[in-house]
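Q: Predict the bound structure with adenosine monophosphate.
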Amino acid sequence: MLPVKEAESIIMNLVQPLDNQRDVEIVDLFAATGRILATAVRSELNFPHWDNSAMDGYAVRYADVQNASEENPAILEVIEEISAGYQPKQTIHKGQTARILTGAVMPIGADTIVIQELVRRQGNQVFVLATPKPQEFVRHKGEFYQAGAQLLPGGIRLSAPEIAALAAAQCSQLSVYRKPKVAVLSTGNELVTPDQPLKAGQIVDSNQYALASVIIQSGAEPLMLGIVKDEPEALTQAMAIALQSADVVISSGGVSVGDYDYVEKLLESNGGTIHIRSVAVKPGKPLTVASFEDKLYFGLPGNPVSALVTFWRFVQPAIKKLAGISQDWKPKFIIARTHYDLHSDGKRESYLWGKLDIVDGIYEFHLAGGSHSSGNLINLAQTNALGIVPIGQTLIPKGEEIQVMLVDL
Ligand code: AMP
Ligand code: MG
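A: Predicted complex:
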């Protein structure tokens, strides 16, 4: 049994990220949410595109208003009105100003904005009642971004803030990594699909769906290859198809020591290199990891909770790395107070499922109610965190601090 950390580092070392030239596709900005930039983006546009006003007010020459006060206002003549989108026609000379609105282009000659709250307007004249700071409320061309510089680095995941920057910089087509393909197989003679009638002794293949769902959430594309019988020939064939068509293969079931558990033996006899045979983790001890040249194979345990917990802990980081995220994506651990006693057998690192809440500004872990059998997937619903009991500990009492792994939903 490998310690969790050791298993994690073996897996991460096996992953070769997608290639930022070959494994890419072009997508429209609109479809880029959640995708990972393959290469750095530069724009030919400055941002702001031109000097403009940050406020509603008057565009002035600082020299004209530097001694303005309520008792001694600077009196300026308004020669133009500049709203956003309008190209100013006049130059501001000594004693002149232009009415200007937020986002509108600064007229030539003016260098400072006086906000409208600090002036009194009378017809064509404004009385400036206070001295602004030099260049106050002017957003200068290129102040936030200079054309040609790196706007965003490669290897980052795109969401609203990056999409906004890309839109403003008129980068409407992007080179992103293709989504890694992850094949999913469910092994077991007892399995039926959710829409098949359930005969005595049969079990619904929930893992196929659960795994497809977390694969999508991890930014990859699931290939659902269905249910495979616990028969060496059928399994061998399914493994071969899966390895051919995907970057990563995940099977569930058939990795324990039962009479029908063939996965590990077949991985070996079909030319795979086994890197992990079992991990000191609960649930999930029989986790099996193999490689076939550049393809990775994860044999997850069949119990639905074991399959999901081992996915979150070991497979998701591997998929994120494969997908091209440049900074190693790691599961996030935080310290929280446990709201219930947490029990473990002390022999393996235990991951107990539940919810993380914030109570009076402090993270609190609430163990899911009901059975913590790894076959109980019903109370897994709404899980957003796993409370961890380290090896050697059998009880963490209510109120104590524990490590919690966040489940990335
Ligand atoms: P195994 O790891 O094959 O020994 O399976 C352990 C337990 O998980 C058994 O009770 C199986 O019926 C159940 N199981 C295996 N595969 C699945 C699956 N795809 N969906 C739901 N339960 C499963
Ligand atoms: Mg089985």
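A: The mean pLDDT is 96.
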